[in-house]
Amino acid sequence: MSTDDTPFTDADLTLLRRPLHGWFTTADGATPPQPRPVWFELADDGTIRLFSAADALKVRRLRRDPRASLVVAAPVEEREHWVAVTGHVTIHDDDAAAHALAARLAPRYWDMTDPVRQADLAAQADERQVLLVLHPERVRRYAY
Fold first, then answer.
1. What tens digit of pLDDT does each residue of 95-126 get?
2. Gyration radius of the chain's alpha carbons
3. For residue 18, which of 71, 82, 127, 143 sits 20 to 30 Å off, Cα-Cα?
């Protein structure tokens, strides 16, 4: 079933709270979209939070055009289910908040008992990061 309702359904919330990658796409006028897999968090206020290197292409594009989307899909071995969120993004030049989000999300995506992953996360602390907040304006979904 497919719908175009703005609020998240219970099924949406369940999917968005799972340790799945989201495919984040920025708009930039006539430039073709370039989706990237990202870690994300659904915040209590209904926004979606991500972090990024401050000099990343997606951040430069968002500074020119704040429109973006995030698509999250169930793994292939499950029945088809996806949620697509579109809206505008605010960029927060808050390095500490971005690093805190990365640290909070790391155990969701990585085995943090692995010394290699611990070093990967520590290396991110040396990069200047920004916090990206996607403000949902439209939510589309499909589920069997």
1. 999 999 999 999 999 999 999 999 999 998 88
2. 15
3. 127
